[in-house]
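Fold this: Purine phosphorylase
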Amino acid sequence: MSPSPTVILTALDLEYQAVRSRMSGPRVHRHPQGTRFEVGRLADAGCEVALGHVGKGNQSAAVLAERAIHEFAPAALLFVGVAGALQSHIALGDVVVATHIYAFHGGTSEDDGFKSRPRVWETSHAAEQIARHIARTHSWVRYLPEYTPEPEIHFGPIAAGEVVLNSADSAYARWIRDNYNDARAIEMEGAGIAQAAHLNGSLPVVVVRGISDRADGSKEESDRAQWQGRAVVNAAAFAAALAGELAAEHAAGTLPSPTPTPRIPEMRGTTENIAMGNAQVGVQAGVVHGGIRITSEPPPPADLPQALDALRARLRRALAEGQVDQVTYDAVESELTVADEALRGGARPSTVTVALRKVRGLIGDVSSLATALAAAITLAQGPPS
């Protein structure tokens, strides 16, 4: 599989089959959560695609679109399917390419009626420009089956909700005319796809719909006339041409497309490694967050005063990093002061040793202080007799 295929998603089996019939050598790609995609090449467009079936509705479309984006890091994402026409000049079998997606179910219910609160997502400028060029030059027509009449390509908003509209006079139909009168078609997945695209930055996403009915009560008649199958063949042909152009633009580096980065848990704080004896310390890591210090074994202190100074320095660092609290720090400092005074006053070495053993009782479980403390105790005890 190429590093950046184009993802094509569908909602209905006949939509899926219309795209799959154009693929050569499709092979199953299993997502860890059970979703199955098929990956292959669009034989006529010459680009790698990952095909997925999301089922009906915006919610499942959003979830599986997000899943596909993070699984394949695609060059672009297309949604291919059928829709109902909302304007009389759009004929059955025509293709609508979304310039905007309206999520028309948003709103607030008040005493004087329902007030619309739509959400709108725009198709990316670069992807829309490519789609318009393909339509303008009629270069996509060669992807149609032989003897198929060329349908018209329409660009404009598509309304996406959670209902199948099959009435020209219902409350829903009137509400959509009142609030979304520039919408060209109505369907049930585009808002979910658009939301997934919005959450993934600059990923080009295009919704391509073949018109299979007029959303006016005549859907059953249109379905009997097999307009769903005819409309989706037209939509799949246009989408194949668009997928090829988007893939070429992406390969040339002229089409923005984010590559999702896997989340890596953050590592806090600083890790300190000290090599002892003949040991060496190294780090092999892909990504490291936080600080790492690699040092060789420090030279051993020459005498007991130097060892006490080294222990004090490490104690201050342990306090700053929260490895010891202030009460423990003060108690240790008090015992180190006893050791200092015993050294200066010429007291017996056992006095210093006793003080350092008390220190060990206070901080013996703090690993970052263990080495310096052990060196000080060894010097205080002197060479073995």
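The domain at 6-251 is CATH 3.40.50.1580 (Rossmann fold). The chain has three domains: 6-251, 264-297, 298-381.
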